[in-house]
Amino acid sequence: MPSDEAASGLTPPNPGQQSALQVKARRRLARSAGVIGIATMTSRVLGLVRDQVMAYLFGAGNAVDAYNVAFRVPNLVRDLFAEGAMSAAFVPVFTRELTRGGRSSAWHLGNNVITALALITGALVLAGIIWAGPLMAVFAGEYASVPGKMALTVQLTRIVLPFLMMVAVAGAFMGMLNSLDRFFIPALSPALFNVGTILSVILLAPLMPRLGLEPIVAMAVGALVGGIGQLAIQWPALRREGYKYTPTLDLRDPALGQVLLLMGPGTVGLAATQINVFVNTILATSEGTGAVSWLNYAFRLMYLPLGLFGLSIATAAMPAIARFAAADDVAGMRHEVTNGLVMMLLLNVPATFGLIVLGHPIVALLFERGAFTAADTHATAAALTCYAIGLTGYSAVKIASPTFYALHDSRTPVLVSTGSVLVNAVLNIVLVRHVGYLGLALGTSIASLLNAALLLYLLRRRLHGIEGPRLVSVVVRALLASAVMALAAYLVESAVAAVLPGHTLAARIARVGVPIGAALVVLAVAARALRLSELDDVVRATWGRLRASPATPANDS
């Protein structure tokens, strides 16, 4: 059987050079992922603040259920364009145009894609506004049995749908900046969405009854304000790179055809998790008041480590993977993919254990106040545990699926994703009968793990290996370190709860902060004992970025 280097058509460097190159590539990836992680952390924290505001004002009742269903369609598109299809379809083609034809060729493609997206999503928005009633009757028919709930859902849907067009164009901006190795500003752009929503709710919710509207309508208005913010923050960075938008739609441009051809399959190939969550929302509408909201709050919490330790690493790795693919450098792709998977595992495995052990005190600290009750905390924490089980699966797909598109293979991820959605649907229908709404979260996690495992198996065949022994070694050591960490967190949290048994803010902060601090110390010691040097690279790169001067973010990588 030919070696990896022979398969790639390259002359391998000697072992010493290869090791040095791998370490350099690993640290470059860690540095870029650290930059994205800092911006993503800012966005995710603001997202939690947004959810806290919503939980405080509206709890987990009918109004929040209606908003979550109404926002699910544009939010699905946001997740796909910002984190999936746009990166998988647009970044490799844009990077190729940039490499082979220079910036003028790349800008021409960017103009074509933005114009096409605006037209397509504009038509979808118009159709959705016109047929919002029948659409919601299909997605949330059970709401018709609650007076006013269906009418409110339809009204909110019509308000938030234009966000779909904004997020599609913002995704194109993000793809262009990432291809130029500009990561910080695109990763920070979702923060503007959260800021817009928070300010709108605080300022407008008290005014809505005077206009004859429900206070929750302020959330829908805030989504539109946040969408404008996502565009506004990225535009200056693109202008500094020399980009100027010109309305262009050259349907004969082969690069545009390739992007659109890949984007359809790309959406399906990367949509498994988002579609599964969408299916969960529909099924949860029949599980009584609160089920949709509990699942939504839990998934938002799980999305914090997913964004930090999954999306940030995949976003940092994707431009390099695309460049290696354009150069037919299979060995380079293999090393970049493996480095990304290793880093993702080292961060997401401990995060999974942490969410499971500390889920209840975290939910209580973040949400249990105002209209959000102790019963809501218990229900949300249980859903968080079920979602956390699939965290590594969600993250691995973010790396594996786009790699197939860089290899000009859209068929494999589409077939695997479609199979995952079908498996998830079957699991959910079966599990929801036995454990209620928790079965929806658990089914999604199992389907995500199966999706990731199959994609990685098939990708291993395409890349002539993905350094399997190294990955297995990292998984085993990460599991051992995380198990020790989780035990420490559990014991410390139990001790703190015994000393501070009340429900004051100080007690809740202590029950989260002290165990997390102890867990991080134990994890660091265990990682050092198990020689998980890659974790040191991540910490060093992120800490170095935090200490960097304000002038450095101009070069986001």
Low-confidence stretches: 1-18, 545-557
Shape: globular
The largest sheet is: none
Our count of domains comes out at 1
What value does the Rg take, in angstroms?
23 Å
Compose a concise summary of this entry:
82% of the residues lie in helices and 0% in strands. The chain is built from 20 helices and no strands.
What does it look like?
The chain has 557 residues and is mainly alpha-helical. It has one domain. 82% of the residues lie in helices and 0% in strands. It contains 20 helices and no strands. The chain has helices at residues 4-8, 15-58, 62-83, 85-130, 132-139, 149-160, 163-179, 184-204, 217-240, 254-270, 272-284, 291-326, 330-367, 374-388, 391-406, 411-435, 438-462, 468-499, 505-529, 533-547. Helix 10 packs antiparallel against helix 15 and helix 10 runs parallel beside helix 16. The longest helix is centred in the first third of the chain and has 46 residues, at 85-130. It is globular, with a radius of gyration of 23 Å. The chain starts with a helix and ends in a 10-residue tail after the last helix. Residues 1-18 and 545-557 have low confidence and may be disordered.
